[in-house]
Amino acid sequence: MHHHNHYYGQAHILARYAGLDDEYPPRLRGYLQHGWNIADGWNPVHEFYDGAWRFTWSDGPRRRGHALGRRNYHSIGAPFLYLQQLEPTLGAVPEEEREGTLWFLFHGWEGGKIQGDHQRLIDEIRETEPGPVTFSLYYTEYDRPEVRKSYEDAGFRVVSFGRRGFSYEGTDPRFLYKQLTELRKHKRVAANRLSTAIFYGIAAGCEPAVYGDPMEMAGENPLFGGQNRIARLWPELLGKDIDLAAARATTDLELGVPWMMPAEELRMLFDWRERV
Asked: How many structural domains is the chain composed of?
């Protein structure tokens, strides 16, 4: 099983949903999409072994993959959706008690750091958000004191949900549990780029916003069109005041609500059936 499948504890969530051991999830014979993606579900240089299944969240990545000449796709819905079914009350508060904004900074990864004007972004957030701000940093930025301190000094509550892991080491299987808990407490979700967290927030009942300096990341691959392509294809999800009905309709498609499966079907697809 490719170690990407463990990112954010996604294989663990699917194993639990299927009624299997979620501490040591069984092998998933293929590649599982681990984040929202404007291409076929993976980065432009991802290597696949021949004949492997590619499990996408929705049908859009499958269609784009077919246009690239790739095959063996199956859309199953995002593991985050299954987590919501497994944990219908985790972190939930009455609707009238939800407050403030959970704000996600576009993040780098182990191979690339983000660069941008953090103070300018802070000023814009203060001008825009009507309530208290909880600022979420990916661990790659949370571990950079100069970045974390700038948002702490701005008076924001700063959080990080853990590490995605690498080569099966260091994965926090509760990453998405912690993220869901925070999202359900907040009225709004925002970020400086349209990203996975925005879709998760909308699915969890938040009002979305995408604005501010999108920042740059060293080594960012422009092959799939980047920010300009996002602006062309998902304009309804950009801005400070977004139409909620349109955002929810797009979110259902991008996270793959129509392609979710019952546990029995998921076990069969993944070859997780009991051996006799």
From this structure: 2
Residue 136 falls within a domain, yes or no? yes
Rounded-to-integer distance, Cα 104 and Cα 134, Å: 9
CA distance 109 to 40: 20
CB neighbour list of residue 156: distance below 8 Å, 6 or more residues apart: 103, 122, 125, 133, 134, 135
* Helix, strand, coil distribution of the chain in percent, nearest 5: 40, 15, 45
Global pTM?
0.94
Q: Strand 114-115 vs strand 207-210: parallel, antiparallel, or unpaired?
A: unpaired
What does the pLDDT read at residue 223?
67
Contact 160, 197 (CB under 8 A): no
Residue range(s) defining the domain that contains residue 55: 3-87+256-269
Residues 47-104 have pLDDT tens digits of: 777 788 999 999 999 999 999 888 999 999 999 999 999 999 999 999 999 999 999 9
What amino acid occupies position 189?
V
Neighbour count for residue 155 (Cβ, 10 Å): 11
Q: Which of 231, 236, 130 is CA-nearest to residue 188? A: 130
The reply to whether 251 falls in a domain is no
Instruction: Indicate whether 275 belongs to any domain.
Output: no
Question: Which residue is it, tokens 């990112």?
Answer: 7
* Cα 228 versus chain centre, distance: 20
